[in-house]
Amino acid sequence: MNDTYKDNSGFGSVEETGQTGWDTIYGLIRALQIELGITDTANNFGEGTQSRFKSRWPNGITKRDTNNNIYGIIQGALWCKGYPAEYGGITAQFTDNVADSIIQLKQDIGLRETSSTIDLELMMALLSMKQFKLLSAYGGKTAIRTAQQTINRR
Length: 154
Hints:
Helix 2 runs antiparallel to helix 4. The chain is an all-alpha fold. The chain contains seven helices and no strands.
């Protein structure tokens, strides 16, 4: 992100620690806002960002055979959530691996959908600190996760 957006005054920078945290998530949000043409960026996915997202992708972001910074943002967000997205780094492509990671994320959320389309709600979930993988080693409980998935599905 730093290389791609360093010349944009609305981006700032993201500390390169190799650790996912709010700094990385905020950087991904600002990068999305820049791609949406928002010049006064902020560290939140507010109404302006939501409106521009819906306007640009009314049916969601879908797999295309082109390079696009949006795909790089999605890949970065997937990595932050623990999904491989693309092996070897950020490619700014919506590959089959990215599509598979999105489908797995949706299943972990509790959705039965098999599409790799990223709608507004999924993009907001990607650009958050919400966790969807069961982390048993950190106290995650299957029963609670199952209840959360049921609520998400409904």
